Amino acid sequence: MFDFTHLPTITLPNGALAFQGLEQGTHEWLQVRAGVATASRFKDVLTQPQSKADKDAGKPSKTSLTYAYELAGEILTGEPAEGFSTVHTRRGQELEPQLRADYEMLADTDVQQVGFVKRDRFGASPDGLVGSDGLVEFKTHLPKLLIPMLLDGEFPEEHKAQTQGQLWVTGRQWVDLCAYYPGLPLFKVRAYRDEEFIAVLEQRLAAFDALVSDTVARIQAYGQPVA
């Protein structure tokens, strides 16, 4: 199974472990995240079955089930699932150090980088811890997506599950979302903990974690693995 006891960590006030010096996207980072439901995928856990039939009540959605199988596979095989990289994710990784510096100057604060934060069987990879209560999350968006955000000025709903999940995992009180694209203004908006949303998220995550554990147990009882 995944051994990360050699990695330097700090314990956050809520008991979560924050891994320092762990670069996002590296093989070691993938190993630490393997088998752990992460905030970037909490929206998959929250999805509901499209069917409204009574027989589907309480069942996981296809999206949630697929994610559960992915995590179960990581636990059973001891290997992280294959990821993917796009030109947009690579651009984001390249520009993030400069954006972090710009944010620090704009907010007049220091950002403490952490590679991953683990709370029990859940985790998150915020782009930084801010002060004693905050987080920051950087996003690269194409102009066609960033321009409406700039005009609207509201916290984008599509990022709510991830950012509220980050607040739950880390125990922090607020998160600054910064979206950017070269040549356009920086979009910056703050969201505070939504305790009602987090309560629902906790409930769904508990059920999802039970689904992953049950899947692992059923496969382990199926027979011997292929050599």
The run of helices and strands is: EEHEHHHEEEEEHHEEH
The computed structural class is: alpha+beta
Whole-number radius of gyration? 18 Å
How far apart, in Å, are the first and last alpha carbons? 17 Å
For the record, the count of structural domains works out to 1
- The third-level CATH topology is Lambda Exonuclease, Chain A
Shape: globular
**Percent range for β-strand residues:** 15-25%
Tally the helices. Answer: 7
Low-confidence stretches: none
Share of helix, binned? 40-55%
Strand count, sense and closure of the main sheet? 5 strands, mixed
Strand order of the largest sheet: 1-2-5-6-3
The CATH C-level name is Alpha Beta
Query: Total strand count, please?
Result: 10
Any idea what the CATH architecture is?
Answer: Alpha-Beta Complex
Averaged pLDDT: 88
Give descriptors for this structure.
single chain; 5-stranded mixed β-sheet; 18% strand; 227 residues; Lambda Exonuclease, Chain A; alpha+beta; globular
Care to describe what's here?
The chain has one domain (9-220): Lambda Exonuclease, Chain A, CATH 3.90.320.10. It is globular, with a radius of gyration of 18 Å. The protein has 227 residues and is of the alpha+beta class. A hairpin with a 3-residue loop joins β7 and β8 (134-140). The two termini are 17 Å apart. The protein has helices at 27-33, 42-46, 62-77, 87-107, 143-152, 160-170, 195-220, and strands spanning 9-11, 17-19, 37-38, 111-112, 116-119, 122-124, 128-130, 134-140, 174-180, 187-192. The strands form two sheets. It has a five-stranded mixed sheet with strand order 1-2-5-6-3, with helices on both faces.
